[in-house]
Amino acid sequence: MSSNVDVFYIHLFNDFSGSPRVFRDAIDSEITKAESTYVFTSNHSGFLDGVRGKRITCFYARSNNRYIQLFYFLLSQILLFIQLSYSLIGCRIKGRTSTVVVNTMLPFGAGFAAKLLSTKVVYYVHETYVKPELLKRFLRFFIEHCATHVIFVSKYLKDKESFNKPISDVIYNGLRADFPIVDKVDSINKFENKELFFAGSLKAYKGIKELFHLAEYLPTFKVNAAINCEEAELDEFMSNKVIPKNLSIYARPSDIQWYFERSFLVLNLSLPDDCVETFGLSLLEGMAFGSPVVSPSVGGPVEFVNNRNGYLIDARETKKIAEFVLYLNSSFDIWNEYSKNAFETSKKFTASEYKISIQEYFKKYDLN
Question: Directed axis angle between helix 133-146 and helix 108-117, to 10°?
Answer without folding.
Answer: 20
